[in-house]
Structures are given as structure tokens and as C-alpha cells.
Amino acid sequence: MNNSVQRYNKVAVVLHLVVALCLFAMIGLGWFMSELPKDLPKAPAVDLFNLGFYSLQLVEPMSPRSFYFNLHKSLGVTIFALILFRFYWRLTHEVPAFPATMKEWEVKLAEYMHKGLYLLMLAVPTTGALMAVFSKYGIVWFGVRLVEGMNNEGLREAFKEAHEVCVTLLAILIAVHVIAAIKHKVIDKDDVMQRMSLH
Ligand code: HEM
After folding, report:
1. How do residues 152-173 score in pLDDT, each as one tens digit?
2. Domains of the chain, each with CATH number or no CATH
3. What's the CA-to-centroid distance between 163 and ligand 1, angstroms?
4. pTM, two decimal places
5. Atom 18, ligand 1: which residue's CA is nearest?
């Protein structure tokens, strides 16, 4: 690994933070919307996340399930673009080496973890998009139709399964990643956390 840089630059730190927040939000939204009943009638407004705080007026009446599914797909496509940019940044820039205090197996494990995180960050939106393409609804990005639905139930079901498996694996890897970062800060007391922060 190239070690001529000591820390991640501002672009990398901001991308890391923004993509992480977006993934948390999308995982929450995905789980929330999947639990919504399929038989709710179309309504002219939705109570955002059923919290009773804000009622959003819709352009056309829609069932809550359709509203949140469309929102999830629109945000998902946008975040996919951000993830692709992050991936491109990572492939074209040097990253700091791991601390010399880390054992060889720890470095190997960290490298596999990071590769796994990138792979799943790409696999989750890809499988989601393919599921939507093979459904009868296709993808509408904030009101703009991107892809017509192909209405292939078998393939939709397969990619739905793949989306759920990849999301579960991603959530597990993120949890391990966060625990590892805290271990570096609290137990190893090295600069790993520091070099991915804004200051
Ligand atoms: C960007 C990252 C994304 C994350 C973190 C994410 C996360 C999730 C989660 C947690 C679920 C619930 C799975 C379950 O019920 O166990 C879900 C469902 C779903 N996602 Fe995503 N998603 C992402 C991107 C996308 C994209 C790009 C699309 C389509 C364009 C999409 C389409 C869907 C659909 C249609 C469902 C509902 C499946 C069903 O219950 O029929 N997702 N997503």
C-alpha cells in the first residue's frame, strides 16, 4: 500500500461521512417501508414516517407504500451515483498506510473489510435497481421516468432476495467497521480515527 500521504483529504472525509449517513437513512427507510400494509388507500398527503409531526402534500394521490417506495428508489439512485464517485475517488487516490503497530493479520483483515464494504456498497443499489427494473413499476427518479418496468416476477423475486441479503451483510460489516474504529481510538490509541476526521 502506498504511504506517501499521512491522512485522508477533505473530499474523502466528506464522502465517507455523507455516504455513511445516507446508508443509515436508506436502511431505515427500506425497513420502514417494507412493513407498510399493501392495502392502504390512495391519499392526497402522507404523515411523514407516521410520526404525527409533518403531513406532506402530494402532487397526485398515492398510497403510503407507493410514496415511500418511490422515495427509496429516487434516493437510492442518487446515492448510487455518490457511491460510484466515492469508488472512483478511492481507485484514483493514494490512501494512508495502516499504523506500523498493527499486526500483519490485522492489516489483512482491515483490507478485506474495506474491500467488502466497497463491494456491498455497490451491490446493494445495483440489486435494488435490478429488482425495480424487473418489477412492473420500473424506476421513476423524483418524478422523471428512468426505466420502464419489465414485469418479470421470477427475476424481481431473485433480486429482491439478493437486495435483502446484501443489505443485511452491509449492516453487519458497518457495525464491525464502527467497532474496529472505536477499538483503534480507545484501546490502541492510534491515529486511525483522526485521519478520517475533518480536523
Ligand atoms: C443505496 C443504498 C440502498 C440501501 C442501503 C437500501 C436498503 C434497503 C432495505 C434495508 C430494504 C428492506 C429490505 C428488507 O425488507 O429486509 C430495501 C428494500 C427495497 N429497496 Fe433498497 N436500498 C438501497 C438502494 C435501492 C435502490 C437504488 C433501489 C431501486 C432503484 C431500491 C429498491 C428497493 C425496493 C423496491 C425495496 C422493497 C422490496 C420489497 O419489499 O418489495 N433500493 N432497501
Report:
1. 999 999 999 999 999 999 999 9
2. 10-38+65-196 (1.20.950.20)
3. 6
4. 0.93
5. 30
